[in-house]
Amino acid sequence: MSSTDFTWLIGGPQGSGVESGANIFSKVCAEMGYQIFGKREFYSNIKGEHSYFTVRISDENIHSNVNAVNLMVSFDAETIFRHFDEIVSDGGIIYDSELENVTTDRVNTLDSPFKDRLHEFLESKNKPFTIAGVLEVAKENGVKLYPVSFKSLLQTLSEEVDNPRLRGLVRMYNVLGVSLSLGLIKMPSTSLVDSIDNIFSKKPKIAEINKQAANFSYNYASNNFENFNHVLTGIEKQPDTILVQGHFGTSLGKMVSGCRFQSYYPITPASDESVYLESNEILEIENNRPGSTIVIQTEDEISAIGMMIGAALTGTRSSTSTSGPGFALMTEALGWAGINEVPVVITLYQRSGPSTGLPTRHGQDDLLFTVFAGCGDFPKIVYASGDIEESFYDTGNCFNYSDKYQIPVIHMMDKFLSSSVVTCKKFNPKKISIDRGKLLDKVEGEYKRFAFTDDGISPRSKLGMDNGVFWNTGDESDEYGHITEDPQIRMKMMDKRMSRLDLALESIPLDQQAVSFEVHDYTIISWGSTKGPIIDAQSMLKKEGIDIGFVQIKLIHPFPTEYVKSLLKDAKVLIDIEANYSGQFGKIFKQNITREIDYHILKYTGRGMTSTEIYDSLKKIIENKAEKREILSHGA
Amino acid sequence: MAPKLADYKTDVHNDWCPGCGDFGIVNALQMALFEMGIERDKATIFSGIGCSGKTSHFINTYGVHTLHGRVLTFAQGGKLANPDMTVVAVGGDGDGLGIGAGHFVAAGRRNIDMTYIIFDNGVYGLTKGQASPTLKLGEKTKSLPSPNTNSNVNPIGLAVASGFTFVARGYSYDVRHLKDLIVKAVKHKGLAFLDVLQPCPTYNDINTRDWYTGADLANDSMERHSRIYKLEDTDFDPTVNYAGETEVNEKLSQALVKSLEWGDKIPTGVFYQNELVSPFSTRITDKIPNYLENPPAKQIISDDGLPNTDISKILDSLDV
């Protein structure tokens, strides 16, 4: 066990500053040298519904959440009702003592299925349906309670600093909660004030009163709360560490890769990326005038993909970012990009479907749809990133694949990644290369955009280029790009286009196709954001002397059959782990590699997997006590 | 060497029906490009799907034959990334006002400097003559099983209401006049819309060439009674000269009222023009000052295979 492995939870109604509170907390802990894995859960709602943030802090590298929560801070009743049972026995709850008499019926955002389950539980424990009731249960479990009246705290503070406006400023409850927590765990407060300045950099006045409140409540906790079992006083910082949010990997990756056009239609959880790109639309260029990314919010996703393709035809590296429902609208044009050999990158931040599904929750259930998206046979690449750091470099690779093979690339991300806040190694832009394939600088002589060549890739002109006139069409075409229905040309064109799937498999470096994190008798196969919790579960088991292998497949279409087969040759029991109902990746695996998968660990609650749940299921598998389909369900 | 008119024609076999109104439009477009001296490789014709969608293959400039209803999306993306290029989008009335109507309205709001020409014939020709959005309620063209049950869209009115800053109508058998309108549309600074009345000799047996020329209205003296007349031959003034709200509203209203004129008198020419509305490129340069000198298509993104974009300031702000 590492000496520090601590999870903090903050919850509150949407719009009450849970996220900024968590950002301050994460920043302070990261500044004190800890590794952070933070995760936000929220409803499809603007104001009022329950949202919460868990931040896991460790002195080792971590890649996931765990089930256990060590300290919860809550300034509303709903958070306590929903999470009191997640706090471990030596943990603590800091809560607003004004809430003790609140009954479950007074919290109108508690939905009845949840309330029924809670009532049944409290009845069995012979407790009242109140905050005091659930806190008694927690206390009986060994949880330490830290009641404090948030109202009185502000009252006292306002008198102390002689600012009557502070009284009743409930918007500051989040900062009070964060500071009380930091005071309780004795986290040095040096960076607290800086973090607040950082978060409220555009609102200096608000920063000022928040800083007063922070110092005051931090001291209050230090002086008044009785000792807590967890003390986190800081460790030596690891060099070159950054604290990033989920969409930073692909956004910054796009800037560095030279993506200069992004069209999008608002959709959770993808739009953050586009908004971030627009917020940083003017780019610094080494030894040159500034560059820019043109970010266009379109009328729908059909327009987003159409504009992206139009821009890509001018030779501009172009992209769009969307989620499942938006991608569904894009599929006709995806085929157009396929038949016209247009290099484009679609960043697909999956959420939980079908249809609108769970629009703010996690899922990996668009894989089969993505691999088979579009009518007709055409080549595309489907590529999946496992974590935020990886997604930065993968974005660079995706643009190179699209340019080299003149093919649409779908870069799979998801809600688990997009709503994480993590520490990782600082991105190194110079590790991204830019390969534009057969994009021409000039054209001499007769030009045929779709000329037959030995490797199936034709030199590519761009709209507006001297002497490079060409035609595109969604119909089958001849070498110039004019419509043809000739059966022989059709066959040659089809062969030409589809041949690049083989070319991609031959020429994409193997370590970009799949990554082996050891192979043992029991070996996991998986894709995408499950990587983090799998790696952490793997090392938990390793500490107990149990070796489990893991092969992460990143290139999913075309499927690297031979390579994956060779990686898995010594594995005896295969375990597929993914966040969907039907084991979609498992189906693709079996379609390509005729080999049975022994176990599936699946989750489709809309919440991401924790390493604890994966660990538990793997343990059951090894002890031969597992079901063929292990279904996970942790998380509120 | 200056290009000749013939240079704008491809040798692709044209498979439109004999007598199709589309021929007049493609000729007018080639003549307009020639007259303006636009180099072949500095213009792109984007087209939709249907008979009119084949237009891009007959014109010897860059040609992008896109998807049904989506031509404006491709065209706007191309123009935004490479604003130096002349962009003309073409498509049928079903393409632009049926399946693509959402894009039509959204394009008006942006006012990107390009031209959109609708080949307006009231039917879906390539799928054998179903009713299209401009066919009037109760009309029964040749292959309809029963009279049309939908009211028609008013293309001019919709364009004016959506924010197009140049709105005009042409007639495909008056090629010279149409060519003049295309030249005006292309030169217009902002998004230009051109509704071209284009008889479909195969499926629209109501709005035929004879009908437009008023053969049914002619009396015994064989006097000309063409339904088509030109707004420029009247005292109609389509142009907004000052940015004042009153004048803009007047010009918008008169264009809308004029667009309702149909039957024995059908106006062609310019209905509305307002160059005082900022083109989209100006809205971008307000945020990104060097956009027009260094647009996406011209930017250099790498140096010897390595990225040249410097994100170190952003990365440093994320340091812990």
Report on the structure:
- The complex is a heterodimer of chains A (about 625) and B (about 325).
- Chain A is of the alpha/beta class and about 625 residues long.
- Chain A has four domains: about 220 residues, 3-Layer(aba) Sandwich (Pyruvate-ferredoxin Oxidoreductase, domain 3); about 190 residues, 3-Layer(aba) Sandwich (Rossmann fold); about 70 residues, no CATH class; about 120 residues, Rossmann fold (3-Layer(aba) Sandwich), CATH 3.40.50.920.
- Chain A contains 21 helices and 24 strands.
- Chain A is globular and about 85 Å long.
- The relative contact order of chain A is 0.09.
- The mean pLDDT of chain A is about 95.
- Chain B has about 325 residues and is an alpha/beta fold.
- Chain B is about 30% helix and about 20% strand.
- In chain B, the strands form three sheets. Chain B has an eight-stranded mixed beta sheet, with helices on both faces. Chain B has a two-stranded antiparallel sheet with strand order 5-6.
- In chain B, helix 1 packs across helix 7, helix 4 packs across helix 5 and helix 5 crosses helix 6.
- At the A-B interface, helix 1, strand 7, helix 9, strand 8 and strand 9 of A face strand 2, helix 3, helix 5, strand 11 and strand 12 of B.
- Strand 17 of chain A pairs parallel with strand 2 of chain B.
